[in-house]
Amino acid sequence: MAKITFHGVGIKALSACVPPEVVYNKDLGYLIPEEEIEKTINNIGIVERRIAAPDVMASDLCYKAAQQLMADNDIAPESIDVLLFMSQTADYRIPATSCLLQHRLGLPRETMCFDISLGCSGYLFALSTAFAYASIEGINRVLLLDGETFSKIVNRRDKVDWPLYGDAGTATLIEKGNYGDSTFLLYTDGSGEDTLKIHAGMRNPITPESCVERECEDGNIRSDLEVFMDGMDVFNFAISKVPKSIKQLLKETQKTVDDVDYLVFHQANRFMMDFLVKKLKMEPDRVPYCIHKYGNTSSASVPLTISSELCGKLDGDHTMLMSGFGAGLSWGSVLLSMHDCKVSPVIEY
Amino acid sequence: MDLNQFIENFADLFEETDPDTIKATTQFKDIEEWSSLVALSVIAMVDEEYDVEFRGDDIRNSNTIEDLYNIVSSRIE
User: Fold this and answer.
1) Which domains does chain B have, with CATH numbers?
2) pTM, whole model, 2 decimals?
3) How far apart are CA B52 and CA B49, in angstroms?
4) A145-155 pLDDT, tens digit each
5) If you measure CA to CA, which chain A residue comes closest to B34?
């Protein structure tokens, strides 16, 4: 467990962008028996999702979100010292997408840029990195771009994954300021590497066979270049690790759930989140959801939920708890001191 | 840990299936209403009622409700 506390650093502004194309889960009759569709939608809580066009990448959605954030808050490009791009659907394997975004956003050459790669827990880890850099002398502002286009790496005939995932890009501006303490608890268990995985890569080199779609467990179709998820193991992982880690975070910070104004979960699926909320005895009205309209957008889901559900609600001081969990296995939470966070509404591109 | 109570907890997870048709020897994957979503609710029930972790393989490798019960009871101590 890594416990990290920051002081005098916080989130100044946040924005999000989704593609305009809506995919409805009620239209999944080709994948799920018609009589089970309604039950599935109620259970996972996902009515519709946004899917990026073939020529729109996570970086494009992040670029639009960043432009919006900079325009809404009068942020000069030259004031950004560090740019982080957190994604598992980067533009290229080389170079890092953050470099392309530096140029596209007109940030100065003095900007330090690098990519971070993690699954659904990624925002928490990337945010802790952003806070760490923003705490350093000589660095004032860090722009964290977190975006995913899982529609490009999930097979449409995989009934475990396809009904869940949507695409989104987000931007978060972190800077020095009059902020109270923020404490992160971050965890990793690589023994669960097979729970959520894309098989082909360097260890299993990509060949023409990697692209071939095959019938896998329970009739699901996918190639070795597409995401596999063991839904039962992920569920067990989340319900056994996440509540404990949140309780630990509250204990370490000497807070209770009643001190938390908003608890923003990674939007995995509704059934899982409801179970976590119940286990934590958290009042549901302090747990915002946007999964019904955007699905599971992997690591982008935490900032997307804030942009979608908390726009205009974060003026003044608030205590926010965020929690993410996913492939790795990797999970973490943060108790954030928020102060006048400017949230832009979700835009489309 | 009581087998009958476990069967009752298991039967509660179904909406349409008559609880009286669910016995210790029932092959649970043959229940018409069984689905991957019900499997998740079994994992949730075992966590909530017995504070036991259930992995996907525990469900995949089990056939009857008694098989599930035996795994849970072996992990309680």
Assistant:
1) 3-11+26-76 (1.10.1200)
2) 0.94
3) 8
4) 999 999 999 99
5) A36
